[in-house]
């Protein structure tokens, strides 16, 4: 399952690099990613009912068959190439005629600070995303006393908010680029920085509320802070999520996959480590949220320093 899903987004981003005009790419990336948020929210919302009606097997059959019905329409689709530079003028990864292989191309790319900016930002951002969303139900239940039956109202809504804000950020970024209001680098810096520092501030506030007692006012305020923080994190869809199309249009799928791997590694580490921090600190949510906030700020600082806005020379290898 994971092996199949792992190639989906890199393939999509390669298609966007070749078939979507430059001044529409932020919107395209935001729309695709927002659709994944919407799908996650839909799945969280309907799966319990599906399982209750037909058992856990019904959930697998339902979502699996949806993909099967979608495939024929996708297979019959064709797309016009609008960005010749993304094709590199030759066969991708070819080793003939003295061209380096895909491993050599990848090694050259990851040595650039522009690609490292993507990897660092993805790692820091996903540490917060995976760590927060995985432990969000526990936070509301244990720190704020929200009954288990009421948790969907607090844990599903953030996905919808992220989708809406994400699409809006992509549309606005492309509009600013077309109007020439700001440079590409400034837009990438601004959206990504606000999308990481903003959630860090919100997490700090949620941590304070978590230790202040389970009152109705604190529960409401914490829910608002979490939703605002996750909404702000969706601004990064006009930042790191599209940066690989700026700095490596020919290798967009490869660079996206590299950054996404860093994000996955962050998730693998963040979830159990957050649990360990909770146990080691006597259920201190301030410590858990503090670690996430620090990583957000450090990631934003390195992103601001290293992000690029033009194809790197290594992309032409």
Structural notes for this entry:
The protein is mainly alpha-helical. Helices cover 75% and strands 0% of the residues. The protein contains 13 helices and no strands. Helix 6 runs antiparallel to helix 11, helix 8 runs antiparallel to helix 9 and helix 11 packs antiparallel against helix 12. The two termini are 33 Å apart. 40% of the residues are buried. About 3% of the residues have low confidence.
Helix percentage range: over 70%
Mean pLDDT: 83
Distance between the termini: 33 Å
Strand fraction band?
Answer: under 5%
Globally, the shape reads globular
Low confidence ranges:
89-96
**For the report, how would you describe the main beta sheet?**
none
Radius of gyration: 21 Å
- H-E order: HHHHHHHHHHHHH
Number of helices: 13
Q: Helix/strand-derived class?
A: mainly alpha
| SS elements, strand count | 0
Concise account of the structure shown:
With 317 residues, the protein is mostly helical. The protein has helices spanning 2-6, 8-19, 25-54, 56-75, 102-110, 113-143, 151-155, 157-179, 184-210, 216-233, 240-247, 252-280, 285-306.
Offer a few descriptive terms.
mainly alpha, 317 residues, globular
Walk me through the topology:
Blueprint: H1 2-6, H2 8-19, H3 25-54, H4 56-75, H5 102-110, H6 113-143, H7 151-155, H8 157-179, H9 184-210, H10 216-233, H11 240-247, H12 252-280, H13 285-306
Helix pairs in contact: 2-3, 2-12, 3-4, 3-8, 6-11, 6-12, 6-13, 8-9, 8-10, 9-10, 9-13, 11-12
């Amino acid at each position: 399952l994971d092996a199949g899903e792992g190639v989906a987004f890199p393939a999509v981003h390669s298609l966007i690099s070749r078939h979507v005009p430059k001044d529409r790419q932020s919107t395209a990336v935001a729309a695709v990613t927002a659709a994944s948020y919407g799908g996650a929210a839909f799945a969280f919302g309907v799966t319990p009912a599906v399982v209750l009606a037909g058992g856990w097997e019904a959930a697998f059959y339902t979502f699996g068959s949806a993909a099967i019905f979608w495939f024929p329409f996708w297979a019959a689709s064709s797309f016009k190439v609008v960005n010749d530079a993304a094709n590199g003028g030759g066969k991708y990864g070819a080793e003939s005629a003295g061209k380096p292989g895909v491993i050599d191309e990848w090694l050259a790319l990851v040595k650039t600070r522009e690609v490292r900016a993507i990897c660092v930002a993805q790692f820091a951002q996903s540490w917060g995303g995976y760590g927060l969303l995985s432990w969000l139900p526990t936070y509301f239940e244990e720190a704020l006393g929200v009954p288990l039956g009421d948790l969907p109202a607090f844990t599903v809504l953030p996905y919808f908010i992220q989708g809406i804000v994400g699409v809006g950020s992509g549309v606005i970024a492309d509009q600013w680029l077309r109007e020439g209001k700001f440079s590409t680098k400034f837009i990438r810096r601004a959206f990504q920085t606000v999308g990481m520092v903003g959630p860090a501030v919100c997490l700090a506030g949620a941590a304070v509320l978590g230790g202040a007692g389970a009152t109705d006012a604190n529960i409401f305020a914490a829910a608002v802070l979490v939703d605002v923080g996750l909404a702000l994190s969706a601004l990064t869809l006009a930042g790191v999520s599209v940066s690989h199309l700026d700095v490596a249009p020919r290798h967009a799928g490869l660079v996206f996959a590299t950054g996404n791997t860093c994000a996955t590694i962050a998730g693998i580490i963040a979830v159990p480590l957050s649990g360990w921090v909770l146990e080691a600190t006597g259920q201190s949510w301030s410590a858990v949220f503090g670690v996430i906030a620090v990583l957000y700020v450090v990631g934003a600082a390195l992103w601001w320093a290293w992000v690029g806005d033009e194809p790197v020379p290594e992309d032409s290898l």
